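Postdoc handover notes: sequence design on the structure in folder B. Input C-alpha cells:
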C-alpha cells in the first residue's frame, strides 16, 4: 500500500486542503485500482468521475479529449425526420453530376476537384434538406436565413445540386471554369463572379473559419443594436481538417466561446487527408482538434464511425477496440482503408489478445465494410443527429468533427489515395462502378454512347426532385443563395462636411483627426448615424478616437460588468451591449473580418451598414492583403482608413512602423478606391463621394467598391476650401474623372517658358513640396514652378487604362492625367512620402518629361525633418532635384545644381 504521507500535496501547492488525510485516501484508492485492475480501468474511472462532476455543476475543468468514438451513440440518435431513400437518391445524383462536370472539363485541361465533395456529400445534403434556412424572407422583415460557408474544393457538388433544383442547366455545367465569356461557373465560391448563388468566398483557406466567427458575432451585434433581429440566423462553416493548419482557422476560437456564439457551427470534414498526403501521419487530427476546440470552450461532437461499427463495439467488453483506435496514427488508418481483411487482422487486431478475440467473431466482409467504408460522415442518420444536437446546444459554439473517406464512392482508384486531390477525371469504367455503388438507374448504353460521360437528371416531376423542393420550401427557399434587396440611404446633411471645408483656423490638426471628427458628426445623423460601424484594432487612442467611447460605446455582449478605472473622467472607457464601436484588440485579421461582415450586411441581412476600419497603415494591406481580396470578392462596401500613413510622418517608430508602400499594395485590388488626401476638406469631399457611390439613394447605381484613404498624424493648419470648392477641382482625379468617352483634339503647342517645372504631390508631401516651390521662386529665379496636387495616382491610372482599352475599340478618349497636365510647360517632378513606384503609376500618360522622388527602402527612427533628408524628399532636396531636371534641359546651369546642393548641405 502506498505511503499516504507521500501522496500529500507539496509545499508548493497553493490550494488549501482542509482534510489532507481524506485527500490521501482518494489517492490511495486510485493507486489501488491501477495496481489491481490496470491503468486503463483507473483512467476510465477518473474520466467518468470528472464527467459526472461537470454534469452536476461542480466547478471542474472539462476534459480536453474523449475516447475515439462517436459522441452520440446509435441508441441516442433522434428519429430521422424525412424520407431517407429519397435523400439517398438526391445525394447520389449530386455525386454523379459533380464527378461528370469535373471529368468533362478535364478534356480542355480545366479539371476541378472531385474527392472533397465525394467525402463530404452527406454533410452538405443533410444541411440542405433539414437545417439551412433560405432567404425568401429577406427584405420582408422575416429574417435573413442562414449563412453558409462552403468549403471551396466542394463547389462542384453545390453546382450539381443547383442543377438538380433547376437553377443551372447542362450548358452551365459545361462552362465550369470557363468564365471568359461572362456566363461560366467560377472554380470556387466567388460572389463577385456568381452573385446570385455564392454569398461567401472561402477557397483562400483559413479565411472561411475566421470570417464565419466574426459573421456570427456581427449577427449578434445587429440584434443588440436594434438594427435587425438575427436570432433565427445560424452560421454554418464547412471546413477541411487540413485547412485547420492555417493560423487564421483557429485564431478566433476563444472569441466565439467567450461571447457564447451558439449561433455558429463548424463542420470539419475529417477525411484525414490534405493536398499531398495525410493531415497528421503520425498522430490523430480528430483528437488534436477536439482538444483545441474544447480548450477554447467549444461544444465538440464527434461523428466518426458508421453503423457497421456498432457490432464491433458491442463485442468490445474490455475497451481494447477503443484503445486501439485511439493509438493507431491516421496514416496507418488510411492504409487499412486500402488493404484486404488479412492485413487488417494482422496489423490492427493482432495488437492484443482481446482484439484477436473480437476479430475471430468477424467475417472478412464485416472487416472490409468497417475499415473501408463505414464512417459517420457517410451516414445521414448520424449526420442528422449531430446537426440536431448542434442547433439545440446553447451557450457555446459547436464544432462537428465528421470522419469520412476522401474520394468515397469514386472507386478504389480514388478512395483514401494520397494523390486524389490532384485527380481530375474518372474513366467510363470508374463511372460504371460509381453508378453501381450509388444504385443509380443509368444504363451502360447511356455511358457508352456519348463521347463524354453524360449528366443525369431524373426529371422535374421525379419524386426526389419534388421532395427536394418541398424541403426547401419548408426551410425558406433554395440554398445556397445570395439575395440583395436594393436599399438606398439618404444623403447626410452638409453640415458635417462644411465643418472640414471651413478649415481649422490657426489650430494644427492632422488629417487622421479630421476624419475622426467628420465621422463623429456623421454618426449623429438622424437617418444614417446608427448605421456607422467604427472598427479599430486596439489603437483608438492613437487615432484620437477616445472621444467616441462614452458617446457611442464599445460593443460587448456582456455589457460592462466592472467599474472602469477612468470612470470619473469625461472620456471614460464605456462598454455596452448596444455599443457601436468594435474594438477588437490587437488583431488586424479579426478587425478586417468584422469589417467584411459589416461591409456586406446590405446583402447578407438586407441592412446597409457603413463600416470604417481604421488601422496603423503599415499593418493594413501588408498584413491582411488576402482578406482584402476576399472582401472585394464578397462585394464589400465601406471605408478603410490607413492612419499614421507615410514613410516619414512617424517620429521615432522605426522600420516596421514606417509605411511607404501600402498604396502600392492596395493598388493591386480592383475594388479599392485609393485616395491620399493632403487636407481636411479633401477628406470631406472623398467621404461624401464614397457615401454617394456605395450607399446613395438610388440603389440601382450603387457600386461594389470600398474606399481606402491614407491619413496622417502630422499636425498642420488645415486651410479652407478655396472659393468654397475643392482646391484645384480639376485635380481631384478619381472624384471627378469623366466616365463617358470624350473626343479630344491636341491643343496648340505652348510657347516655351524658361525654367518651368511642374511639381506633383499628394498627401503630406504637398506641404514640403509647396515649401520647395517657395524656395525655387525666391532663391533661384522667376520661372514657373507650379505645385499640382493629386489625391492618388492609382485611380487616375485605372481611368487611363480604360482609355487605352477604348482606343483599341476605335474610341477617342484621353486619360484624365494627360488632360490635367496638357500644355503645362517644363518637366514633371513627382514628390511622395511613398516609394517612387506609387506616383510612377501614372508616368506613361504624362506627355512631359517625368521624374519622381520617393521614400524607397526601409523606414527608420528619427525626426520628420531628418527622415525626409535621409530619403531625399525634404524641401531642399526637392529644390536640388528640380534644378537638376531643368539642367538636363539646358534651362539651368549645372553649376547652379552644385551650388544648391552645397548650400543646403546635400553635397
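Designed sequence:
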Amino acid at each position: 500500500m502506498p505511503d499516504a504521507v507521500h501522496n500529500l500535496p507539496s509545499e508548493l501547492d497553493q490550494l488549501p486542503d482542509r482534510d489532507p488525510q481524506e485527500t490521501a485516501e482518494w489517492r490511495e484508492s486510485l493507486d489501488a485500482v491501477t495496481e489491481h485492475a490496470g491503468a486503463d480501468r483507473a483512467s476510465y474511472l477518473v474520466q467518468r468521475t470528472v464527467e459526472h462532476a461537470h454534469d452536476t455543476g461542480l466547478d471542474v475543468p472539462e476534459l480536453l479529449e474523449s475516447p475515439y468514438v462517436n459522441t452520440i451513440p446509435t441508441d441516442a440518435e433522434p428519429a430521422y425526420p424525412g424520407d431517407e431513400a429519397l435523400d439517398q437518391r438526391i445525394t447520389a445524383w449530386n455525386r454523379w453530376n459533380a464527378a461528370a462536370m469535373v471529368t468533362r472539363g478535364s478534356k480542355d485541361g480545366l479539371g476541378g476537384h472531385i474527392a472533397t465533395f465525394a467525402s463530404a456529400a452527406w454533410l452538405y445534403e443533410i444541411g440542405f434538406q433539414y437545417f439551412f434556412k433560405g432567404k425568401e424572407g429577406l427584405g420582408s422583415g422575416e429574417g435573413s436565413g442562414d449563412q453558409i460557408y462552403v468549403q471551396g474544393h466542394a463547389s462542384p457538388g453545390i453546382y450539381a445540386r443547383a442543377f438538380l433544383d433547376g437553377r443551372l442547366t447542362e450548358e452551365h455545367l459545361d462552362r465550369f471554369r470557363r468564365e471568359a465569356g461572362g456566363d461560366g461557373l467560377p472554380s470556387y465560391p466567388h460572389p463577385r463572379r456568381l452573385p446570385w448563388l455564392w454569398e461567401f468566398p472561402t477557397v483562400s483557406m483559413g479565411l472561411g473559419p475566421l470570417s464565419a466567427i466574426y459573421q456570427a458575432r456581427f449577427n449578434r451585434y445587429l440584434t443588440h443594436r436594434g438594427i435587425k433581429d438575427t436570432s433565427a440566423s445560424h452560421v454554418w462553416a464547412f471546413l477541411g481538417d487540413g485547412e485547420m493548419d492555417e493560423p487564421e482557422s483557429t485564431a478566433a476560437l476563444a472569441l466565439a466561446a467567450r461571447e457564447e456564439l451558439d449561433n455558429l457551427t463548424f463542420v470539419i470534414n475529417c477525411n484525414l487527408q490534405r493536398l499531398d498526403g495525410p493531415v497528421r501521419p503520425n498522430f490523430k487530427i480528430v483528437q488534436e482538434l477536439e482538444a483545441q476546440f474544447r480548450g477554447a470552450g467549444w461544444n465538440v461532437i464527434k461523428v466518426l464511425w458508421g453503423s457497421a461499427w456498432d457490432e464491433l463495439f458491442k463485442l468490445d467488453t474490455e475497451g481494447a477496440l477503443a484503445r486501439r483506435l485511439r493509438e493507431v496514427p491516421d496514416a496507418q488508418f488510411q492504409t487499412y482503408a486500402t488493404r484486404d481483411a488479412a492485413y487488417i487482422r494482422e496489423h490492427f487486431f493482432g495488437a492484443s489478445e482481446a482484439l484477436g478475440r473480437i476479430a475471430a467473431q468477424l467475417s472478412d466482409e464485416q472487416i472490409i465494410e468497417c475499415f473501408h467504408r463505414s464512417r459517420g460522415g457517410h451516414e445521414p442518420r448520424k449526420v442528422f443527429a449531430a446537426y440536431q444536437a448542434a442547433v439545440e446546444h446553447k451557450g457555446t459554439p459547436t464544432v462537428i468533427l465528421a470522419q469520412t473517406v476522401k474520394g468515397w464512392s469514386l472507386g478504389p482508384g480514388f478512395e483514401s489515395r494520397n494523390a486524389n486531390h490532384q485527380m481530375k477525371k474518372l474513366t467510363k469504367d470508374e463511372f460504371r462502378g460509381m453508378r453501381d455503388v450509388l444504385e443509380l438507374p443509368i444504363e451502360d448504353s447511356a455511358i457508352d454512347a456519348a463521347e463524354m460521360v453524360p449528366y443525369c437528371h431524373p426529371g422535374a416531376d421525379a419524386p426526389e426532385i419534388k421532395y427536394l423542393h418541398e424541403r426547401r420550401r419548408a426551410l425558406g427557399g433554395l440554398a445556397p443563395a445570395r439575395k440583395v434587396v436594393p436599399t438606398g440611404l439618404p444623403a447626410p446633411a452638409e453640415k458635417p462636411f462644411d465643418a472640414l471645408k471651413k478649415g481649422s483656423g490657426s489650430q494644427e490638426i492632422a488629417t487622421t483627426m479630421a476624419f475622426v471628427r467628420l465621422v463623429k458628426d456623421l454618426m449623429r445623423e438622424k437617418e444614417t448615424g446608427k448605421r456607422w460601424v467604427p472598427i479599430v484594432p486596439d489603437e483608438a487612442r492613437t487615432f484620437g478616437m477616445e472621444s467616441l467611447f462614452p458617446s457611442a460605446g464599445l460593443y460587448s455582449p456582456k455589457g460592462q460588468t466592472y467599474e472602469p478605472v477612468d470612470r470619473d473622467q469625461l472620456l471614460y472607457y464605456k462598454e455596452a451591449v448596444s455599443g457601436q464601436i468594435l474594438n477588437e484588440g490587437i488583431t488586424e485579421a479579426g478587425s478586417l473580418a468584422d469589417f467584411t461582415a459589416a461591409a456586406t450586411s446590405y446583402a447578407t441581412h438586407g441592412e446597409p451598414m457603413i463600416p470604417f476600419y481604421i488601422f496603423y497603415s503599415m499593418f493594413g494591406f501588408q498584413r491582411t492583403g488576402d482578406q482584402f481580396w476576399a472582401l472585394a470578392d464578397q462585394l464589400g462596401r465601406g471605408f478603410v482608413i490607413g492612419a499614421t500613413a507615410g514613410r516619414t510622418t512617424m517620429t521615432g517608430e522605426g522600420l516596421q512602423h514606417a509605411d511607404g508602400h501600402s498604396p502600392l499594395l492596395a493598388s493591386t485590388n480592383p475594388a479599392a478606391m485609393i485616395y491620399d488626401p493632403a487636407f481636411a476638406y479633401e477628406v470631406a469631399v472623398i467621404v461624401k463621394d464614397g457615401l454617394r457611390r456605395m450607399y446613395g439613394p438610388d440603389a440601382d447605381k450603387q457600386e461594389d467598391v470600398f474606399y481606402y484613404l491614407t491619413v496622417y498624424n502630422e499636425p498642420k493648419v488645415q486651410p479652407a476650401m478655396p472659393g468654397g470648392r475643392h482646391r484645384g477641382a480639376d485635380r481631384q482625379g478619381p472624384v471627378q474623372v469623366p466616365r463617358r468617352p470624350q473626343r479630344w483634339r491636341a491643343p496648340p503647342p505652348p510657347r516655351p517658358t524658361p525654367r518651368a517645372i511642374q511639381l506633383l504631390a499628394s498627401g503630406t508631401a504637398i506641404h514640403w513640396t509647396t515649401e520647395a516651390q517657395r524656395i525655387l521662386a525666391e532663391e533661384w529665379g522667376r520661372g514657373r514652378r507650379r505645385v499640382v496636387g493629386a489625391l492618388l495616382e492609382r485611380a487616375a491610372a485605372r481611368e487611363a487604362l480604360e482609355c487605352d482599352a477604348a482606343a483599341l475599340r476605335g474610341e477617342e478618349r484621353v486619360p484624365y492625367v494627360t488632360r490635367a497636365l496638357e500644355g503645362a510647360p517644363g518637366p514633371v517632378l513627382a514628390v511622395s512620402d511613398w516609394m517612387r513606384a506609387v506616383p510612377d503609376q501614372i508616368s506613361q500618360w504624362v506627355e512631359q518629361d517625368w521624374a519622381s522622388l520617393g521614400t524607397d527602402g526601409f523606414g527608420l527612427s528619427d525626426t520628420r525633418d531628418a527622415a525626409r533628408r535621409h530619403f531625399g524628399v525634404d524641401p531642399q532636396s526637392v529644390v536640388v532635384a528640380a534644378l537638376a531636371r531643368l539642367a538636363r534641359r539646358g534651362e539651368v546651369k549645372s553649376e547652379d545644381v552644385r551650388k544648391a546642393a552645397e548650400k543646403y548641405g546635400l553635397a
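Context for whoever picks this up: The CA atoms of residues 830 and 852 lie 4 Å apart. Don't rerun without checking with the PI first.
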